[in-house]
Each structure stands twice: as C-alpha cells, then as structure tokens.
Design brief:
About 45% of the residues lie in helices and about 15% in strands. It is built from 5 helices and 4 strands. It has a 4-stranded mixed beta sheet with strand order 3-2-1-4, covered by helices on one side. The longest helix has 18 residues. The mean pLDDT is about 90.
C-alpha cells in the first residue's frame, strides 16, 4: 500500500506542478467554466471538434493540487476520444472517487487516472477531483452556465 501512496503522491504532484494541456484553446469549438466554492478552485475547459470526437482538450485556471492534477490528466485522457468513450471514462472516474467502485475494478478502465482512488477516503477532496470532469461534461453539453460543485 505504501507503493500506491508513493505513486499517488508522485503523479498528483507532477501534474499539479506541471499541468499538461494548460492553456486556452483559441480555436475551441466549446468551453465551459467550473467553480468549487468550498476551496476556491476555478477552471475553464476548452474542447476542439466536440462533435463525435474531441481532437483537443485544454484547460486554464487555478486551484489545489488535486484539482489541477485531475484537470491535467483529464485533458490528456480525453484527447482523440469519442464522446461515448469520454462519457464512460468520466462515469468510471466519478464512481471511483466517490467510492462507488474500488481501485481494482476501476484501474483497468482508467489507467493512470486510477491514482485518484484514494480521494474517496477524503470527502472534502472529492469535489476538487471531480470539478474538471463536471466542467468537461458541461462543455460537451454546450451549457452556458458555470458548473459549481455545490
């Protein structure tokens, strides 16, 4: 279990300190804003070609390490995926971090994203981990109103 905690810390810290896909996407087809009033996380998710497939996903914003790492890994994971694949991935991620499924059930479907499994033990952090994913869904649904975790 110590190895898993070490991996968790390493991956989360790496993505929070050096987030991937952290930029506005000037030619985005859709975007959505998200806010976690509990800890102040704010982000915008940008998607290009959000028809049946997402060619590019980026984000900008600020927040805690969990929030930034989740957004960074989400943006990498959904690039090139179909909307159906993204919806399935998103649901599995949400089920993992809310404790509805365990690490062993989620890991094969989530790959690196499974490191967020430990978040389920800290209910306050669940909103940090899920903000980017709820904002992604809002962008795919082309919602105009910002997403809030409250």
């Amino acid at each position: 279990m110590s190895d898993l905690r070490d991996l968790y810390q390493e991956v989360i810290l790496d993505h929070s300190k050096q987030p991937r896909q952290f930029r506005a996407l000037d030619d985005a087809d859709v975007s959505a804003d998200g806010f976690n009033p509990l800890c102040g996380d704010k982000l915008t998710v940008f998607l290009r070609n959000a028809g049946d497939r997402v060619d590019e996903a980026t984000f900008q914003g600020s927040g805690c390490a969990i929030s930034m790492a989740s957004a960074s890994m989400m943006a990498e994971a959904v690039r090139g995926a179909t909307v159906a694949e993204i919806e399935a991935l998103s649901q599995t991620f949400l089920d993992l971090v809310t404790g509805k499924i365990d690490f062993d059930a989620a890991a094969p479907r989530l790959g690196k994203l499974a490191v967020f499994g430990g978040v389920s033990k800290f209910p306050v952090r669940v909103k940090c981990a899920t903000l980017a994913w709820h904002t992604l869904r809002a962008a795919l649904d082309r919602r105009d109103t910002p997403v809030s975790t409250e």
